[in-house]
Amino acid sequence: MIINGIFLPFPLFVLSVGTMLLLASVTLHRSSRLSFSLGLLTLVLATVMTYYPAPIMPLAATQTLFFADTWANYTAALILLSASCIFILSWQDVTQRSARSADEYALLLLLGALGATAMVFSVNYMPFFLGVEILSIALIGLVTFRSRHTQKGLEAAMKYLILSGVSSAILLFGIGLSYSVTGSLVFEFSTAGHETGTGIAAAASIMVLSGIFFKLSAVPFHMWILDVMEGASVPIAGFIAVVPKIGIFSALVRYFGSEPVTPFLHNTMSAIIILTILGGNLLALCQTSLIRLMACSSIAHVGYLLIAFYSPGHFQSDTMVLYLAAYTAATLGTFSIIQAFVSPEGLQRSTISDWKGLFFTHPFLAVAMTAMLLSLAGIPPTIGFFAKFEIAASGLEQRHYILLTALIVGSIIALYYYLNIIRLMTTPNTSLNIGQNKKTNLTIYSTVFILTLIVFVGGIFPSFFMNSIHPALPSTRAEYLQSHIPLP
Amino acid sequence: MHILALTSACISILGAFMVITRRVAVHAVLYLVVTLLALACVLALLGAPFAAALEVIIYAGAIMVLFVFVIMMLNLGKPDRDRETEWLRPRAWVGPAALASILGMELLFGLRTLSGTGITFQITPREVGLSLFGPYVLMVELASFLLLTGLVTAFHIGRHWPGEH
After folding, report:
1. Fewer CB near the last or first residue (10 Å), C or N of chain B?
2. Under an 8 A CB cutoff, do A134 and B142 touch?
């Protein structure tokens, strides 16, 4: 929407209004049910709003803060749907506790979604950085919501606070240096200054990329995610695995456009991708906790996604769109199944050996879990197979043979630890008890059912997700704006 | 002019290093004040007097008061008199005072030699306000959401729940 020549994407507008309404309702009447319904309603409305075509933006290209193209709308819809899913998963967990704490939970989840959405739509460093910070600070608060092991949650929040602060400082320094070289805050990789060889432009890009890779948890910057996800409650761990990564990845794609990465970053990108894939998978091998294992697997999946990002070509946009959907559905599905086994007192069954014999006691959840894990491993007939196939195709198109070798080695390692969980689930002997409350089970079961359906339908008809959602290039963006500026 | 800016920058780095190596919080805060004043000098010499003034008023002024206040609240172990004599030993304040006096001399020198030759293009508070509430009004709103998030998070973490912990 446009007010006085200032463009604000519809979903962001709905989210801000929803946040303010939630605040107002909290001041009038404190009820966890009301807060959660209001939060969920806002997210659903904002998701619907991503389908509305963006209006014409009457601003000069240099002054634009937000831009809504199909890529931004698609990733925003993914973020909002994931956040709604997290809302549904944590419903029972939080509303059982006192109403005051539930209000804050709903508020912080909504603000986190707002931050991620702001990142996705931003074409300027300012909204991007503000979005990153809103999301990180909301996450610090969300990590501490844990009915048991409050100390563990606080410890994780403290770790995240310090590390995310350091990475934000690096990002901000990079933005400052980039401004000193180019004189503009437009959020795009600028080749200006690289020819003169002063090093400032290179330092700026490296620092901005470091900040982005930290939030993406690519390998040299991945250490925080294991501890933070383990310290958080199960739905919030799912939130950390999905929402910030989609937001930051979308912004990264926007940063480079879909043009080839400049030559001086070739070695850096290849090294980061190989380290991320191998590091994530090797770390996952020695984990005994399912949540830590999922954290490692999310690191590895970021590596696969970066291959798609690094291989511009015919397949790139389809690959990124399909892979984001596949990763989101399978990860959220896994976390909903883990959440189904959290006891009403908040005790997590996250050790892998706890999952023995699930096929005999809870056949539906076991089948769904198998589907999710197979999708993450990339085995047909799940959506993960086509996603990984597309990544291999796009890598092959650009002849990134070393990266493809890393992809294959990583996938083989991943197969071992994913199949190991399935093997354990088929072993008899069980001690697993599902949460007592029938109503919780119904919501979680239906969430799991829908996600399983997405995983299978996406695996059989992947073309549903591949309708060429290209991120608008900076040049086309400028042209678009030029052509729509009303003549004076 | 270059020498002045570089000296201030060196002082700010030195001060920042001293901030993170001090063991007593109040001593660290003294160095932090010097660091912020040096940063303000750098900004002023770069031609951003408004940013420099904000740095002094908000950071060295308001936020430092908050820091000192929090330190006072948290240090409840010893009697006040002992604590204050320990804080006011020369060893604690000579370093920051020396750095601050270098900055002060710079300021006096700058006032004498640089007045008149100053910056022709100045960013006034009026211009800052106009651009904040003109093209960048959405950023102000987004920043307010950031503050709201920080507030809710701090409120949640800082509160004691009966029955939990």
Report:
1. C
2. yes
Q: Is B149 on the interface with A (CB under 8 A)?
A: yes
Instruction: State whether A108 and B152 contact (CB < 8 Å).
Output: yes
Predicted pLDDT at B78 = 63
pTM of the model: 0.89
Residues from chain A that touch B148, judged by Cβ atoms under 8 A, are 19, 23, 111
CATH number at residue B14: 1.20.120.1200
A66 contact residues in B (CB cutoff 8 A): 138
Whether residues B9 and B71 fall in one domain = yes
Q: Is A2 helix (H, G, I), strand (E, B) or coil?
A: strand
Q: Are residues B133 and B115 in the same domain?
A: no
Asked if residue B129 and residue B52 are part of one domain, the reply reads no
- Residue B139: its chain A contacts at CB < 8 A? 65, 126-127, 130
Give the relative orientation of helices B90-114 and B25-45 as an angle to the nearest 10 degrees. Answer: 10
Q: Are residues B140 and B99 in the same domain?
A: no
- Provide the number of structural domains found in chain B: 2
Residue A5 CB partners (closer than 8 Å, separation 6+): A58, A59
When CB atoms are compared, the residue of A115, A140, A150 closest to B165 is A150
Alpha helices in A217-289 (DSSP H): 223-231, 234-256, 266-285
Does B39 lie in the same domain as B99? yes
Claim to verify: residue B70 and residue B150 sit in the same structural domain: no
> Given phi > 0 = left and psi -120 to 50 = alpha, else beta, which region is A313?
left
> Residue A373 to residues A301, A304, A381, A384: CA-CA distances in angstroms?
13, 16, 12, 9
User: What's the gap in Å between the CA of A259 and the closest CA on chain B?
Assistant: 29
Distances (CA, A) of B68 to A310, B60, B64, B83, B89: 49, 11, 6, 14, 17
Residues B115 and B130 in one domain: no
Assess whether pLDDT exceeds 80 at residue A436.
no
Q: pLDDT tens across A464-485, in order?
A: 766 656 665 555 555 555 554 4
Structural domain boundaries, residue B150: 124-165
> Measured between alpha carbons, how far is A113 from A110 in angstroms, rounded to an integer?
5
* Same domain, yes or no: B21 and B94: yes
Nearest CB among B148, B157, B164 relative to A111 is that of B148
Least-confidence region, from A406-410, B2-6, B30-34: B2-6
| Pick from A108, A130, A151: CB nearest B153 | A108
* Predicted-complex ipTM score: 0.88
A188 contacts A257 by C-beta, under 8 angstroms: yes
* B 100-139 residues with CB < 8 A to A: 135-139
The whole-angstrom distance between B159's CA and the closest CA on chain A is 10
Query: CA–CA separation, B104 vs B90, rounded Å?
Result: 20
What ranges do the domains of chain A cover? 264-477
